[in-house]
Amino acid sequence: MNLLWLQSGGCGGCTLSWLGSEHGSLFRELADQNIELLWHPSVSESGVDEARELIARCADGRTRVDVLCIEGSLLRGPLGSGGFHRFGGGAQPMIDWVRQIAARARHVVAIGSCSAWGGITAAGVNPTDACGLQYDGEAAGGLLGPGFRDAAGLPVINVAGCPPHPDWITETLAMLAHGRLGAAQLDDLGRPRFYADQLVHHGCPRNEYYEFKASASRHSEQGCLMEQLGCKGTQAHADCNQRLWNGEGSCLRGGYACIRCTEPGFEEPGHAFETTPKVAGIPLGLPADMPKAWFIALAALSKSATPQRVRENAHSDHLLRAPTVKRTKR
User: Fold this and answer.
1) Average pLDDT estimate for 34-60
2) Whole-structure pTM value
3) Averaged pLDDT for residues 56-74
4) How many Å apart are CA 273 and CA 296, to the nearest integer?
5) Where in the chain is the domain with CATH 3.40.50.700?
6) What is the pLDDT of residue 279?
7) Are strands 36-39 and 74-75 parallel, antiparallel or unpaired?
8) Angle formed by the axes of helices 94-104 and 48-60, to 10°?
């Protein structure tokens, strides 16, 4: 499977994440799946002139592209010309290369939330008119349009995340290489379901504090970060707390609230990331699929039943009281 990876308007963090895979050499991983990397701006030896010639061959069909991966948002400005980003100093805008190659590629994959939705690059006044491949924020459209379908009949495959977990990228490519990624394996936003059917909340080490609504007031504390510190793990589609980073880490394990970076529009929540907006004391961002009335009733019950151990540990930066040891009588 021939893979071409292009970078557009972004920071390169998705590539950095991919290169940080804990499974060893990236090139060996690709070879194991029979994937040929035609070119990648960070790891290929080819200079800019050779790369430009290769991209031209991919665009006119002389070189077959099975998977086109785009990292970073697509810069349409100024005035739709794409002139803000011309690959390697050439005359042709990057968005034109992307449109031409996407029309020929068997599959198109958005690597990271910038190429999926527009992401950080599209925040604020968006002077470069940045967008995703098939989404502009939460609205379908983007560079390729809502009706785009690849040669296999699939929309753009959105491996969203800021950045995505390295395994999300590699497993998506492996599934494509073996013909195992079809429409049924994508969610409503085109994300691979093997990671997007989970919530960041699943497997969170702070779940006991969440259940009892024992909330932290500072990031150094062990309590739940949802009620006071802006955590959106109950609304974010990803398996970050089950598929750990480097085998042991996640944002929440590092003491940071989930900012919902796999979702469109995460970059502009309308409030400071580390705060939880509320109305009458009730957080606006409630858990996915949970009616407000149920949340209020359960929260009140949970807080009244919070064990003293959980209450004390929630406001400490280390474990103060361990669970009581009880013998079970049969």
Assistant:
1) 94
2) 0.92
3) 97
4) 23
5) 2-196
6) 79
7) unpaired
8) 40
| pLDDT at position 34 | 96
pLDDT at 297 over 70: yes
Task: Quote the mean pLDDT of the chain.
Answer: 93
Range 2-196: architecture per CATH = 3-Layer(aba) Sandwich (3.40)
Closest CA to 225 of 205, 249, 242: 205
Taking residue 93's Cβ as centre, other Cβ atoms within 10 Å add up to 20
Measured CA to CA, the distance from residue 141 to residue 133 in angstroms comes to 8
CB 72 within 8 A of CB 142: no
On whether the CB atoms of residues 252 and 206 are closer than 8 A, the answer is yes
Q: Can you tell me whether residue 30 is helix, strand or coil?
A: helix
Residue found by looking up tokens 């490519």 in the block = 173
DSSP state of 327: P
At residue 191, does pLDDT exceed 90? yes
Task: Count the residues in the chain.
Answer: 330
Contact indicator for 236, 260 with CB cutoff of 8 Å: yes
CATH 4.10.480.10, the chain: domain bounds: 198-319
Q: How many CB atoms lie within 10 A of CB 160?
A: 32
**What is 198-319's CATH number?**
4.10.480.10
Percentages (nearest 5) of helix, strand, coil residues in the chain: 30, 15, 55
- Whether the Cβ atoms of residue 256 and residue 228 lie closer than 8 Å to each other: no
